[in-house]
Amino acid sequence: MNFKALSLALLLAGASTVQAAEGQLSIGTEGAYPPWSMADAAGNVTGFDADVGNLLCEKLAMKCKFVVQAFDGLIPALKANRFDVIISGMSITQDRKKEIAFSVGYAELANMFVVPKSSDLAGIKDIDALLKGLEGKSIGVQTGTTHAHFVEKRIPSANLKTYDTLENMQIDLTSGRIDAAFADASALQDFLSKPDGKDFQFVDVKVQSKFDSTLGEGIGVGISKDNPELKAKIDEALCTLVADGSIGKASQKWFKMDISRPCN
């Protein structure tokens, strides 16, 4: 019985590597975080993450298969071998590196707060003043993100509200149930460009990862710690795709700016 259990565990642990070796790379992504990752009812994925995944698969001469998964379930699902890698706008952090391995960082974008135009926070332009102004406020973030960890660490008196999707957070923002929303600038820009966002604005303070380590070391591909060979191949491919401008071109398409992060 113990031998059978061990054999099954080894089989499952090797499933990701075997699948990749057969020429298919299965990619876990959220599918509900525009413009990074959007999935339709049929499970078709578009967005910057999809473009990066497809570029990576082309460079590795593999076929992409996207698997849609709630963001806070991506790491557990990777560890359970539901897919080979995570490409989902995931920041590289020390806490996450305890669970999984990461590729080199390939992108980075500023994080920002959105508030009603009528808010007393709307005119702030200094990070220290902003953090003080947010004390005691209700702040919306997506569950399991670096944004949640940042608010917990830097604004402990805030009433932190977590949401499974960006859309649900924006619903509470427009209804007045939270005072501010915190996410990466690109995702919030999508909200501001729509009719529901007409009465809201960015606070003119870009919160970069260099300001606090909880915000990570750029965006990377999540990979199982048990698959160092795949990590090496992905690192090499990503560095090539950044250097030749492919990832920069994809980011211009979705963000109207180059957010690619050069390999060190």
Describe this structure in words.
43% of the residues are buried. The N and C termini lie far apart (49 Å). The protein is built from 11 helices and 13 strands. With 264 residues, it is of the alpha/beta class. The protein has 2 domains: 145 residues, Periplasmic binding protein-like II (D-Maltodextrin-Binding Protein, domain 2, 3-Layer(aba) Sandwich), CATH 3.40.190; 105 residues, D-Maltodextrin-Binding Protein, domain 2, CATH 3.40.190.
**Count of DSSP H/I helices:** 11
* Spatial ordering of strands, largest sheet: 5-1-6-13-7
Unreliable spans are: 1-19
Rounded average pLDDT:
90
Give Rg in angstroms.
19 Å
Tally of DSSP β-strands: 13
Series of H and E elements: HHEEEEHEHEHEEHEHEHEHEEHH
The domain tally reads: 2
Which structural class best describes the helix and strand composition? alpha/beta
The span between the termini is 49 Å
Offer a quick outline of the entry.
By secondary structure, the protein is of the alpha/beta class. The chain has helices at 2-13, 15-21, 48-60, 74-79, 94-97, 127-133, 146-154, 166-175, 185-192, 228-243, 246-255, and strands spanning 24-29, 32-33, 37-39, 45-46, 63-68, 85-86, 101-102, 111-116, 138-142, 159-163, 180-184, 200-202, 222-223.
